[in-house]
Amino acid sequence: MERKNAWEKYREDADKKKVFDFAEGYRQFISNNKTERECTTFFVERLDAAGYVNLDDVIANNKSLKAGDKVYAVNKKKTIACFVIGKQPISAGMQILGAHIDSPRMDLKQNPLYEDTDMAMLDTHYYGGVKKYQWVTLPLALHGVVAKKDQTIVNVCIGEEEDDPVFGVSDLLIHLSDEQLKKTANKVVEGEDLNLLVGSIPGVAEDEKELVKKNILNILLKQYDIEEEDFLSAEIEVVPAGAARDYGFDRSMIMGYGHDDRVCAYPSFMAMLEMDAPEYTSVCLLVDKEEIGSVGATGMQSRFFENTVAELLALTGEEGNIYLHRALKNSKALSSDVSAAFDPNYPSVMEKNNTAYFGRGMVFNKYTGARGKSGSNDANAEYVGELRRIMDDANVYFQTSELGKVDAGGGGTIAYILGNLDMDVIDSGVAVLNMHAPWEIISKVDLYEAFLAYVAFLKFAR
Fold it and tell me: What is the pLDDT of residue 1?
């Protein structure tokens, strides 16, 4: 079943402007927020401005919650959940928009700085599924935090301003790469070779060893208040430097770092800001660590979400584990993550009747997984039927997809983890080209249709 191109809805200039204005807000968001910490800070600032209250403050002040109240909770500055309390009891179920805000990248190791042949280098460990050869010869920036022993925090963002230096991983020149080019693509650049070049001027010291490294340490101390030992308690991410850009003569697309999965997180969050007095409690849950299996204290497999819902239940007068179990079982969720867009340069890995296309709107994946649906959440047919009704009634353009041909590969999301809580959940999101590359591409109209889909889901489900 072929779906229409969503741009058909926006032929009038005034309608098209809505798409482009929303996309511009998103473009600025991913340009300025390239880590999960930065995204969380952005969302907290917007929530505070919109009248949401930190759940910790509600608890500390011994207040209760009622229909229409807006609260949020933050987990270790990397995960955030926001809620608008509905008219129905929370135990009757919630409408949940879930996505992740971490992206593939490189992280500095705990002992990263060294000198080799009069060059200062930073050692890295790649994070998530990447084609390592894509990360060489690019201008790269450093984002993150350094936690010093006295618990002061040094925020790091180097490489984004016009007068900032940038960094990079070198590659072998074509003239000497005969042996390199005989290797398979996953061996052309090895993980241990992803080392950043960060300096080459020697400093002055009585000890003439590693003078370039000493000069870099001197710069770090003077300009950023960072000592070498501070790297032990730092979280510094290496990401592509520069802003996201409009893509194509018609500016219909955006090229940027981190579309996976901020292209789903941003419209999910913006949809929450549209909620005032929902029938059922509206939720936006934005988590960390999806790219490495959703593990750890800030991943979807942590108890953060369940614990937060338990607090909300107590604050609305529904105390006891049975109410938590009912609330989760009766909830409905969209687990939003990107889908692979059909690429006419690489058609062989796609099955054209079951793939996502640029410009055809929001994507629903009844199941993901690998090959025999391994690791997949497989949404119930009744739930898919309900979502079809909601989208059609709201005039939201949507399409269905799988992640490539059956035996071509596959992938997963946080959907199965939500499914393990016994709720109805389906994978959904936005189609992306160059997924997991340093620079990914999305369609502006797909982004906007996703926003409309999330609003419709929160307002009209059930």
Answer: 64
